[in-house]
Amino acid sequence: MSTVLRVSNLTKTFRSGSRELTVLDDVTFDVPDGSTCAIVGPSGSGKTTLLGLCAGLDAPTSGTVELCGTDLTPLDEDQRAAVRNQYVGFVFQTFRLLPTLTAVENVMVPAELQGRRGARERAADLLDRVGLGERLDHYPAQLSGGERQRVAMARAFINEPRILFADEPTGNLDVETAETIEDLLFSLNANAGTTLVLVTHNLELAERTGRVLRLRQGRVELDEMRSEGVKV
Amino acid sequence: MVAASASCCTFPRWSSAWRRLLRFRIQGFGENLETTVDAEAKTLLGADLSLESDRPFPDTIETIIDSIGGTTSRRISFASMALFPENDRTRLATVRATEGGYPFYGEVVTRPREAVDTYRDEGAALVDGTLLKQFDAEVGDSIQIGRRTYAIAGELVKMPRESSIVSSISPRVYIPQTALDTTLLGRGSRAEYEVYFKFDDGRDVESMLASIEPTLDAYDVGSDTVEEAAGNWREGLGNLYRFLSLVGFVALLLGSLGVASAVNVYVRRRIESIAVLRCLGASGQQTFQVYLVQAAALGLMGSVIGAAIGVGIQMLVPTLLADFLPVPVEFYVSWRAILLGLGIGMGVTLLFALWPLLEVRGVSPMRALRSSVEPTTGGWTDPLRWAVAGAIGAGVLGFAIVQAPTWQVGLGYAGSLVVVFGLLAAVAWAIVRGVQRFFPSGWAYPWRQGLANLYRPQNQTMVLMLSLGLGTFLITTLFLVQQSLIEQIRVTGGEEGRPNLVLWDVQPDQLAGVDSLLRSNDLPVMERTPIVTMGLESVKGRTIDDLRADSTFDLTFAHTREYRVTYRSETTPSETLVEGTLADSMRGNPLQTGAPVPVSIEADIANEDLNVGIGDTLTFDVQGVPVTTVIASVREVDWQRIGTNFFVVFPPGVLEKAPQIYAVLSRAPSEDVSASVQSDLVQAYPNVSAIDLSLVLSTFDQLFQRLSFVIRFMALFSIATGLIVLVSAVVVSRSQRAQESVLLKTLGASRSTVFRITAIEYLFLGSFAALTGLVLSLGATWALSTFVFEGPFVPDLLAVGGAFLIVTALTVGIGLLNSRGVYDRPPLDVLRTAEV
Q1: Chain B residues with at least one Cβ partner in A under 8 Å
Q2: Using an 8 Å Cβ cutoff, are B318 and B26 in contact?
Q3: Residue B132, H or E segment
Q4: What per-residue confidence (pLDDT) applies to A104?
Q5: In the beta sheet, which residues pair with residue B74?
Q6: % of chain B beyond a pLDDT of 90
Q7: I need a surface site. Which of B279, B303, B358, B746 has the fewest CB within 10 A?
Q8: Burial grade of B709 (CB within 10 A; 0-12, 13-18, 19 or more)
Q9: Is A52–B455 a contact, with Cβ atoms under 8 angstroms apart?
Q10: B830 vs A86: CB contact, 8 Å cut-off?
Q11: Cβ atoms within 10 Å, residue B571
């Protein structure tokens, strides 16, 4: 199995006044293609920072991130944006839909940025698969939290990404909706063969992945491979 | 949050300051005007009393003048060609031949200063600065009026009763009456004879005038007193002040919309904080008060800043309007205007802030936990919403009524405002809906996203389209009307085969010479029109004196004016017969037979002023000889054509022997040829005046430029208000834009894509606003051209395109300038900030 994400000696420090704060300290790990991985840890342990660096949303202080064979370290923001658009999908805790666009238009955005043809048909198909086939032309404000997250998932998959990063994807949802979303997330992931890297506080959700990385104070405290793999 | 908070404070402060500035500045200027007119009343006339007539005063009036006493000064004014011998160039000017010490009050400013005291004794001339500048002449050169040449003793800078706007259109030349070439006042020439009085005995001028008025009226002698002159100026300046107030009122309302819009965005962005306050135990009423006090404080700050800036700008306004004013307006700070401005500013801010603030009362504390919980008050089911709507309506109406001279006009103001804003809103709405309805789904993503942003929640699209659209509308309409009128003159005069040079006051014995002078310059003599001056003696059998004595009769200028009449049996291309036929040559001499002469009359003066029709009789006094006429035909006349047009046309065979002058029409192929022929003419026939099309055009252009300056100045305020609303809207929505920009970058958009989306959004916003204004402007210009100026609608598409580009470019430029930094937020923020 090839490696889709390779993180080597990753360190990120922030300056706060005269103080230097190390949020990630010499983190190294690989994520194989098609696998699922959860990053867990207490608040302030560096989970979100690690996810952001892995997805090329920010540049590390030192170390390297190689995503889908591309070393992100020397790239500028626009070049990293192109890599994200080509290989990466995102699901956020707070959905992050554009309020001015309808559900189907929101899903189309990544495909449109790539200039792909047939974006609308594909977006409609994905929305149908997440159960929103009747709500294509609804604006985010007209959708419930669960529905918005399903739109966000459809958007994440429209470019058939090789890797999907999810940041607390069920953190803003009630238990019942959260379970539906989780099932959907893993089923889409399994069907498309996409690698899934998610950040969560929810240990039950983490247990559904094939691997758990536990962070504490910016370091990998535990890297647990789970033999049973993904529970769908 | 800090940035958002600062930006929200910035908006109301800016717009309040702007509105206050307008209100206060105009109010203060109005007070300054009134005070100045009162203080300077005597200098407006330059004397205690003046009498004027368009013919030399008859003996009876001279006797009255003698009996009135006091110190007198006389003046004869007429139009004549002024020739500058140094360069042989000519221009029609208003010549004032003076005698005595007028003006008795007020200051005459000349360069050099002593010229005003010496020019009469030296037999020299004072010449308007505009005329000197136009012909590169200077003090010490000479100027020829008629057959007399005068040394230019000085440049006339300021003279009571003359405003520089009038001087620039018809420049003045002052000469001593003793050195006047009296042949210029020959038969048929138009001149105004004036005598000015100064009284040192403190007499009651009004009651003295009342005793001599019947005699003055009988001889068509007009009079003017200090009180009348001040009253006329007060009325004229009052109109100017009211106009400025009206425009200020419009700008005030635009700013008010801006306040409402900014507070709306402000409240929306504060809903979470309000919910937290509610969680902590604050009641709906308390939270409402917190934000109301905040709005009031910002309104007060804005008012104070606006008043301060207003004081500064108020000092500039008299300079801007100096050309229109008879006396310099003194600047002083009007505390009443400042207090009024502050009061109105605070009132308007609170009134318009209340509208969006109503929602604050109904924000649920649950909103702190769940973002989907919407406020429960502030909708149309909320009785307070209706109360606030009523208060705003009443406030606007009340303000309009206070502002207007009468309550009916105030209602008219408010009504017109509703119509204008309604039309702008309707056009803006139609454009936005049209775009939504026919959304260009095939366009590239940044274009579609930029377009879709116009409908974003909490957008400012309508307010911006109204404010920018109104400014565009005002400026473009003004410009288009101006261009349309100029073009109209150009087209009618420039038409191939139509005359573009009119020679006036040609005496019969000069006719042959003028003809040959024109022909020797290869210019055609296209028309030779005889003109006989006469006055009306009776209408339908009732004498003018009889009509004047009848208090129930509405005597008009048409009854007392001097008529210039021609005789011919055919219509000209600028005339259309609407009733009857033009009579052929009269057989026999009606002056001897007493048979009524069949004449033709112009339709408007017949129907609207004299109230006569076919078959009615008019008796004219043809220089002492009564001639009875009967109306045989009615003509419509296109007065805009360059040429000779007449209210009354006699048939041939009646007036040939009467004293007359001629107008000769020709066509010069170029302005240079025209100038050279005019120069030759003035030298050979000094009494002949020449009017050429280029002079008409440039005079008209100058007049319009100056008149429109004030309107443009105010229209620019409207555009500036719109741009401030735009800046504020951008600043207020900055945080939301930044989050969207970050999200798009996270999804793979490059910085340039995000930049393009923003630029495209402003491009659409600017172009839609410009389009809104331009659509209405074209409509208004068409209506004005068709119904008011009764000419063809000639839209200057270049100007329309220019206005479109300027407004759009300004919007894009300011939008992008204020959005800088938004595109640079790192995408990592998407994981750390609150919900988009």
Answers
A1: 372, 441, 445, 449, 452-453, 455-457, 740, 743-753, 826-828, 830-832, 834-836
A2: no
A3: helix B129-134
A4: 93
A5: B99, B195
A6: 13
A7: B279
A8: middle
A9: no
A10: no
A11: 17
State the DSSP H helix or E strand holding residue B627, giving kind and residue range, or none if neither. Answer: strand B625-637
Mutate to test the interface with A, among B747, B757, B828 (most CBs of A within 10 A): B747
Per-residue CA distances from B583 to B91, B571, B627 (Å): 39, 11, 16
Q: Give me the number of domains chain A comprises.
A: 1
pLDDT tens digits along B461-505: 777 787 778 778 877 777 777 677 666 666 555 556 677 788 878
Nearest to A113 among B441, B453, B753 (CB): B753
Mutant choice from A23, A48, A50, A90 vs B, greatest count of B C-beta within 10 A: A90
pLDDT tens across B672-707, in order?
788 788 888 878 887 787 777 666 666 666 656 655
pLDDT beyond 50 at B443: yes
Q: Which of B387, B405, B423 is the last residue of a domain?
A: B405
A113 and B445 within 8 Å at the Cβ level: the answer is: yes
Is position A231 within any domain?
A: no
Same domain, yes or no: B400 and B532: no
Q: What is the pLDDT of residues B513-536, one digit of tens each?
A: 999 999 998 888 888 899 898 889
Is the domain of B401 the same as that of B536? Answer: no
Token pair, residue B236, equals 């004229």
Q: Determine contact: A101 vs chain B, CB below 8 A.
A: yes
Query: Does any CB of chain B come closer than 8 Å to the CB of residue A136?
Result: no
Choosing from B405, B437, B457, the residue where a domain stops is B405
Higher pLDDT, B154 or B92: B154
**Best of A100, A139, A157 to disrupt the B interface by mutation (most B CBs within 10 Å)?**
A100
Range B238-256 burial, b when 16+ CB lie within 10 A, else e: eebbbebbbbbbbbbbbbb
Query: Does residue A232 lie within any of the structural domains?
Result: no
Q: What share of chain B is helix, strand, coil (3-state, %, to 5)?
A: 60, 15, 25
Of B441, B747, B752, the CB nearest to A110: B747
Give B75's contacts (C-beta < 8 A, 6+ positions apart): B96, B97, B98, B99, B102, B177, B193, B194, B195, B196
Q: Which of A59, A108, A100, A157 is nearest to B436 (CA)?
A: A100
B253 lies in the same domain as B401: yes
Number of folded domains that form chain B: 2
CA angle, B543 then B546 then B547, to 5°: 90
Angle (CA) B7 B8 B14, round 5°: 80
Asked whether residue B9 carries a pLDDT value surpassing 50, the answer given is no
User: How does residue B33 score in pLDDT terms, banded at 50, 70 and 90?
Assistant: low
Structural domain that includes position B623: 527-666
- Give SS3 for B553: coil
Give the single-character DSSP code of B651: P
Q: Assign residue A50 the CATH number of its domain.
A: 3.40.50.300
Task: Assess if residue B272 is contained within a domain.
Answer: yes
Q: What is the average pLDDT score of chain B?
A: 78
CB–CB contact A57 B830 (8 Å): yes
For residue A7, tell me if it sits in a domain: yes
Question: How many cross-chain Cβ pairs, A to B, lie less than 8 Å apart?
Answer: 92
Instruction: Chain A: give the shortest CA distance to residue B414, in Å.
Output: 36
Exposed (0-12), middle (13-18) or buried (19+): which is B281, by Cβ within 10 Å?
Answer: exposed
Return the ∠ at Cα B613 (arms to B607 and B614), rounded to 5°.
150
CB pair distance less than 8 Å for B452 and A101: yes
User: Does B782 fall in a domain?
Assistant: no
Q: What residue in B sits closest to A169 (Cα-Cα)?
A: B831
Looking at CA atoms only, how far is residue A100 from chain B in angstroms? 5
Residues in chain A within 8 Å Cβ distance of B453: 100
Residue range of the domain that includes A101: 3-225
Question: Is B747's CB within 8 Å of A85's CB?
Answer: yes
**Does residue B809 belong to any structural domain of this protein?**
no
Q: What's the whole-number mean pLDDT along residues A63-86?
A: 90
